[in-house]
Amino acid sequence: MGYGADIGWWFRQIPALSREYRVVAFDNRGVGRSDKPDIPYTMEMMAGDVAGLLDAIGIEAAHIYGVSMGGYIAQHFALCYPERVTSIILGCTSCGGSHHVKSPPEIRDLLHNYERIEQLTPEEHAMETLEVIVSPEFIKNNQDIVDQFIRKVTEYVTPLHGLIRQEEAIRSHNTYARLPEIKVPTMVICGDADRMISIKNSMLLASRIPNAEFIMMDGVGHGFFIEAVDEANKAILDFLKRHPYSG
């Protein structure tokens, strides 16, 4: 999952994908039920966490699906452990570095103004984030899903140092030069109304990774995996079926 987020955010993917695949969802270091060491994090370190998890549960290779910061980790995992990747799905994400198209200042303030975040309740912070990643119409017309989202993502509150350490890792993320080394089947997926990570970042990823498939969904933003769940899950399942594990 992405920056500051735990597996509660996958509440609209896990039921659909697990009907056809073994799904292993996990909390990145710094959030949820994973350890939250107050030490510098890097994307290579977080990719190593994924490798360690696969070792612990006896999985040799897997389809890797990451959104936002999770997409950063997925790129590093594919570059560091290519033999363990069957395919990768990169959702609403970026290659980072100087080629990254930045989000507007007000979005960066929402994400990284920690003094302001400290003043919010977990529920207020979750709602504030949801209002940026999905449309007002979706919130208005889906109160049950909004309520479920708030419950899921506030069950385990991310400590401030977890946010800060993950942000440090994000700042150092830069895969631009190495993207052509990714040879496994790749799908890049995003919404065309993404205010948090510009779709130009997804377009750049798709252009740099050999034979990458690019799917852009109309009228949805960074939370495409919540708002356009049926369309997104269908696209993902179609992709996975065309690229089965062959080990």
Q: Could you describe the 3D structure shown?
A:
The chain is of the alpha/beta class. The chain has a domain at 7-87 and 95-100 and 159-185 and 230-242: Alpha/Beta hydrolase fold, catalytic domain (Rossmann fold). It contains 12 helices and 4 strands. The protein has helices at 14-17, 43-57, 69-80, 105-112, 114-117, 122-133, 136-141, 143-153, 160-172, 199-208, 224-227, 229-242; strands at 62-67, 85-91, 186-191, 213-217. A 4-stranded parallel β-sheet has the order 1-2-3-4, with helices on both faces. Helix 6 (122-133) crosses helix 8. The longest helix has 15 residues, at 43-57. The chain is globular.
Concise account of the structure shown:
The protein is α/β, with parallel strands linked by helices and 247 residues long.
Which terms would index this structure?
247 residues; alpha/beta; four-stranded parallel sheet; 12 helices; globular
What is the strand tally?
A: 4
Name given to the CATH architecture of the domain at 7-87 and 95-100 and 159-185 and 230-242: 3-Layer(aba) Sandwich
Shape assignment: globular
CATH topology of the domain at 7-87 and 95-100 and 159-185 and 230-242: Rossmann fold
* CATH structural class of the domain at 7-87 and 95-100 and 159-185 and 230-242: Alpha Beta
Distance between the termini: 26 Å
